[in-house]
Fold each of these.
Amino acid sequence: DTATEREAVRSAIERVAARMEEEKEYLTDLDSAIGDADHGANMDRGFQAVLEKTDGMDDADAAELVKTVGVTLISEVGGAAGPLYGGSFMSASAELGDGITAESTVAFAEAFLDKVQDRGDAPVGAKTMVDALTPAVHTYKKSIEEDDLEPVEALTKAVDACQRGVNFTTPIRAKKGRASYLGWRSVGHQDPGATSTLCIVEELQETAVE
Ligand code: ADP
Ligand code: MG
Ligand code: MG
């Protein structure tokens, strides 16, 4: 019911916020190698603001909470990642309007990826969050729709796929975002945004296990 879903979304928000705080330095280190050393601070600040904004939303349903995540990230986080993550949470939240089901979460994941690609215009292989998100979303969808897995198992598969996507960003050259200014010098560094995407997917999986 609505209350159970609200608590699940809140629990996911708390987990992601705690994880961003934990990874703040690591994400910033990754961004200092190929960017402007702010990705950890951006994500941490954004999700701390999300925690504050969603704290009093005692009557909100899942879709409203997720929409607030997006709106807050857009307003609190500048740079590339804020509008990309924020815009996606905001628009994909509509897919949860009738509740959280295996089907609606697949629709959410697909809408999320679509929006990142719409806004950022990065193909797979440009060394961005798209490289982590794409295999995660495709694996989640296939696991639910073709392999008939439960959402929690599908998420476990998605985490594995996402990790491989993150690994794939290291040897390739950046073609989008700040890292692309470095050209070939971006080779050999793991992408910060792909890494934060993995952290988020891992925390969603942990929430589903709960
Ligand atoms: P900024 O680069 O503006 O400082 P952040 O450091 O917060 O913003 O985020 C950088 C991350 O954003 C990159 O590691 C990359 O994953 C992601 N990114 C940058 N540009 C794009 C894009 N056009 N499409 C998708 N992701 C992008
Ligand atoms: Mg940066
Ligand atoms: Mg920046």
Amino acid sequence: MIGSTASGSDRVPTLQWNARVNSSKAKNPVATVPGSDKIMLENKVGMIFGVANKRSIAWACADACSKQGAKMAFTYQGERLKENVEKLAGELPDSLVLPCDVTNQAEVDSAFEAVGRKYGKLDFLIHSIAFAPREALEGEFVTTTREAFLSALEISAFSLTQLALGASLLMKEGGSIVTMSYYGAEKVVMNYNVMGVAKAALEASTRYLAADLGKQNIRVNAISAGPINTLSARGVKNMGSLLTYVGERSPLKRNVKASEVGNTALFLVSDLASGITGETIYVDCGYNIMGV
Ligand code: NDP
């Protein structure tokens, strides 16, 4: 059981049971516990794709992982975001900032090479990127152009496979890969359109990658997050109304916080989730369980 001892959900969850501490002798190492003599991601190295600013889900994931001792490399797409990402990453010890537009294979290769050079290994990767042209995120799905379809699927779905391959070469001791999906993958959400199709491909990719990489002890999971007001989300028409609708109808009667998604990513990349792979885990205040 994982529970929060803090009143605010921004705090990192504390384990309520008396867990054993990792031991080199243990056959199935048990993750260590906040508040015990070890931290969850001590000596772990991560790569974070998708920080645009402080509101980004990727940043919430990085923040949670950093509080548990991870060292991380961050990628940014294009010069426009470089300064933002450098400033944020600069707050964390021993971080690295690298350019990486996933449509540019040479940049992807260089990013993994740079991580190999600096840290010598990789333990986890967080894929938190998506793109579709704005005009494809309003109106009817049936009018989606070939160009919009292909770029949405390439950047939002294929990139997971592309990055998983690069990561697997550095994950010599096994590892964990986490991606971000959304309910629009399985049900129709107005205006989400081609991004819903891309998320369906992303969730299927998660399962296929998990099946392939499991023999290297690399786990691959998706988080299906509830709507959060970020830069990308604002590209979806009527996002404000969606937030209100979901907040009113979810069992917890509110929208999920980025920090709650970050904490789930922390769990998934830690040894606590060592038996979980190929799953899509909802972090949406329960919205997905509701019928009428
Ligand atoms: P952000 O805008 O903060 O993050 C999206 C990131 O994707 C940006 O850093 C963006 O860079 C990057 N990106 C876009 N195209 C490329 C590319 N070609 N190469 C590399 N990076 C690229 O939004 P979120 O934090 O909301 O989004 C993160 C993930 O979470 C996405 O997969 C999103 O679909 C998913 N998600 C979001 C939800 C929400 O409601 N916010 C709900 C459920 C899932 P740039 O700004 O330069 O385009």
Amino acid sequence: TVLVVATGNPGKLREIQPYLEGLRWELKLKPPEIEVDEVGTTFAENAALKASQVAIATQNWAIADDSGLEVTALDNAPGIFSARYGLSDGDRIDRLLRELGDHGDRSARFVCAIAVAQPDGAIALQTEGICLGEILTAARGKGGFGYDPIFYVPDQGLTFAEMPAALKQEVSHRGRAFQSILPRLKALDAE
Ligand code: ITT
């Protein structure tokens, strides 16, 4: 059976793929011409929208990730608008650092919602993972993607961008979401 990975974000894809490769699905990439309007108001709604619409358009199973960064002092912005906060990763980081300024409360969290849809669009599985951290005042590290260079995880003493890929997979919002959904994905895959 084919499973379409419903993302156009290469950074996400790199992190999602290792979790799916051990399964029996035949993985396919979302055709770029399929674009989903992310009109939901939560990560979970947008993940479900992406998975359903791509499943229906391709007539295959589909898995989607909707994720973002919630900064406490910015009333949880950028949140579901994380991808739309600027035109490039650099712009998005600059804007976030500018809006946060020298605010004393640097606390933030990354959220990742995952949804799996069957070919008729019905949602078969959903989960969410979070990772708590702090926003630094300047970027650190070269790994990962997106906001990783400014997201510091106190438990590890590293930003996401400073972590070896395997460590980010272990502690990140996306890693936690996949760890929690993997047994159910395996059960679906075995059907
Ligand atoms: P798709 O919808 O095609 O999957 P997207 O990038 O538009 O790609 P989202 O709407 O879910 O996806 O936006 C997620 C944004 O949140 C992403 O573009 C990054 O800026 C940020 N983000 C999510 N996970 C991240 C991570 O692990 N590290 C850094 N930034 C992350």
Amino acid sequence: MASVPSLASTVQQRLADALSAALPEAGSADPLLRRSDRADFQANGILALAKKLKGNPRELAAQVVGALPADDGVLKEVEVSGPGFLNITVGDGAIVETLAARAADDRLGVPSAEHPGTTVIDYAQPNVAKEMHVGHLRSAVIGDAMVRILEFAGEKVVRRHHIGDWGTQFGMLIQYLIEHPHELDHKADTGDAQTSGEEAMSNLNRLYKASRALFDSDEEFKARSRDRVVLLQSGDPETLRLWQRFVDESKIYFYSVFDKLDMEIRDPDVVGESGYNDMLDETCRLLEESGVAVRSEGALCVFFDDVKGPDGQPVPLIVRKSNGGYGYAATDLSAIRDRVQKLGATTLLYVVDARQSLHFKMVFETARRAGWLGDDVKAVQLAFGTVLGKDGKPFKTREGETVRLVDLLDEAVERASSVVREKAESLPEADRLTEEEIAERGTQVGIGAIKYADLSTSAVRDYKFDLDQMVSLNGDTSVYLQYAYARIRSIVRKSGDAKPAAHAELGLAPAERALGLHLDQFGEVIAEVAASYEPHKLAAYLYQLSSLFTTFYAECPVLKADTPEQVENRLFLCDLTARTLSKGMALLGIRTPERL
Ligand code: ARG
């Protein structure tokens, strides 16, 4: 587990040292190093510095170059260009050596945080007795990727699935179940998770609709349902037992969906709204005693100067309603206390729909005022946008209903399977896949396509759910990345006796340099994504990696290279590319089959 500094960071450091040696009056100025098309890197920092020091940028740049250490193979060429940029070319040998150090490490040289914090991440939080929709898909997919990335970066991660398992609707549901006791029974225990999941949901759905219809049409049932809410809140054992049945049934369904999504959700991490019931009274008392919350029209409220409705009146966060009932906010405030005080969170991360941003803004601010969120704790909403249909409107079925998540996943797998089949049929006999392999790959490609489409655009943006595009072999899709990976693996398989081996003494072709320098950036991308919560940057990195590999493969023969050393060195680049791709995809929660 040796972390490997990237060439970019080595070059950056040397420039920074030369800068402060040549221009001590500049203090610790940033050389502003970027990858560049002209050379390997370009540093633009001297321009701004020259302005500040009122000097001639080209002259200052020359002074900095003069202060650089003698060439040891890393800085092969540094030249002043244009108004005062530095164009920097690193040595071929340095690239190969750095990559060899990465290849020798299980973590590809990516450092693990020395002083990790504890992030409590709130994601994959569907609602009991309700169908999951595409919004829940986004939270699950983005949250799962963030968990993997943060853990890989060394952070301690605690997962919380804040499912909607409490509220007045349970009065109606439980009352209906009491009056129709067999509505949740399963017809047959098939032992198959998918089937029981579907059956659980269809029972719950039917029960939800029927009880809602009765509630709306039958005043007496409505009254009985309200009494039932009171029994539920007072902890009546029989009522709680029936409530638990709804939760358990829903979990069967949730787990079947998460399973389909190839995602591990662990039971102890499912701490729904009801998990904080015991804290609600105290949360309200503390808020009221400290004056953070005040009574307004019978409700307990927190006010904000900058939150006003369209009529200009302040819109408060309601912690307790005038009828004494607690809502979503009281639960979230209690959850913050629990996560900071009991779980020791230094960061609270919420992967939740952007439409709940005002709620979180008010909840975080309230918790800060109450002292539950100190300066040492960060609270962030990783807000995501809406999933749109091909027509650019919120995603609905032709009949205007919300699209069932399971149907979407099934369709993606079906489409992906035909893509895999078609492609497999064009392969020589020996490389053909069996039907079983096609089914397995179809699942990995289809689920990967859905995840990748979600993860490859910036989370806050809305995106169009377009299956044709998602399973396309060309363009920025997971399938393209998966094929790139499988192709590399097949090259390595066909290499016979030649083994991947780094040869730092060989010169590199331009496409090899470009690929190599990109491979070297993996750790920096991980660090950036872990700090900014932007998994789309990892997706973009991987897509570019595949494109650079494609160019490399077109320009540089691997198994037919000129010398045995060159074959080995190119195999080495292939192998490191494959490992980086597969690690990166795994961090996004996407599989990379060995053969496609
Ligand atoms: N169950 C909610 C929904 O479906 C999401 C919960 C988000 N998490 C939270 N701590 N409020 O919209």
